[in-house]
Design a protein that fits this description.
Order of helices and strands: EHEEHHEE
Strand order of the largest sheet: 1-2-3-5-4
Helix content: 25-40%
Number of strands: 5
CATH superfamily: Histidine kinase-like ATPase, C-terminal domain
């Protein structure tokens, strides 16, 4: 799997470091699992991080199977999962959503079925 990133030198934001790292781990692992399950030929995850005014915008995008339109609106619901029984509780994205919201940001999802999925969030700059 190819993992690439674009990061500014300064990424210091206000918040709970362990919780934000937990969100990133969840996004990376979800992308990796979805690509493995779909048999993506050349799996890749690209992370883009940039400042816009005083907010750090983070985008994690994969080149996997994407998310079906009927599931797109549900991915942040507690206990919603497309994994096989016993393979996940369906709590990762709902917890991630709550963590980002608690930090004053928003977690978004975009996808093109058969092409890619991307999760984005923003956090305030540390003063």
């Amino acid at each position: 799997m190819k993992v690439t990133r674009e990061l500014p030198d300064d990424t210091l934001v206000l918040g709970d470091e362990a919780a934000v790292i937990g969100v990133l781990i969840n996004l990376f692992s979800n992308a990796a699992l979805a690509m493995r399950k779909a048999g993506t030929a050349a799996p890749a995850i690209h992370t883009t991080v940039k400042w816009t005014e005083n907010r750090l915008h983070v985008r994690v995008q994969d080149n996997g199977p994407g998310i079906a339109p009927e599931n797109l609106a549900r991915v942040f619901e507690p206990f919603f999962t497309t994994r096989d029984v016993g393979q996940g509780l369906g709590l990762g994205l709902s917890i991630s959503y709550a963590v980002i919201e608690r930090h004053g940001g928003q977690l978004y999802v975009e996808s093109e079925v058969g092409q890619w999925a991307a999760f984005s969030f923003d956090l305030p700059r540390a003063e």
